[in-house]
């Protein structure tokens, strides 16, 4: 996961910069222009990696809480209501797995919890990515500086968790499908 993020991070940087442009104020005329401007005006290749540290640091708690929550919900569900929530695995009928709709629900809940825990690091990443185009960029050079600055200026709800509800709309279905696919692939590959 970290290798993939490092390889694709410049694309994310350009995407964020292009998305941030408001009507009438276009600093970047397109993708290629944005790449050229960031490279020449923001220190070469290092300019493309502003905010990488909170992304990498946020990956561990996100994945950890996501898998922990899903595994816990799965275990509790199958232990407490096996006939209602479970069904025999495709590859091993002696093993119970969650029914598809229950899998989707547990995956969505796991995604929501993990996203809630790691979201301040996502806000930090975006703030650092936009740092060069914002007037107070000198206050957001490191991850810790940025977290402190956002908290001091905007607080928890309007700062560190700003936009979380909108992010749930993307995250919950994505994680629901990801965990359901994961569980199905375990059965298809005979890993149960």
UniProtKB/TrEMBL annotation:
Compartments where located: Mitochondrion inner membrane
Major subcellular site: mitochondrion
Pfam family for this entry, one: Mito_carr
Membrane topology recorded in Swiss-Prot or TrEMBL: Multi-pass membrane protein
GO CC annotations on file: mitochondrial inner membrane
Coiled-coil features, chain-numbered ranges: none
A GO BP annotation: transmembrane transport
Keywords from the UniProt entry: Membrane, Mitochondrion, Mitochondrion inner membrane, Repeat, Transmembrane, Transport
Alphabetical list of Gene3D superfamilies matching this protein: Mitochondrial carrier domain
Solcar repeats: 1-76, 98-188
Family statement: Belongs to the mitochondrial carrier (TC 2.A.29) family.
Name under which the protein is recorded: GDC protein
Gene (UniProt): Slc25a16
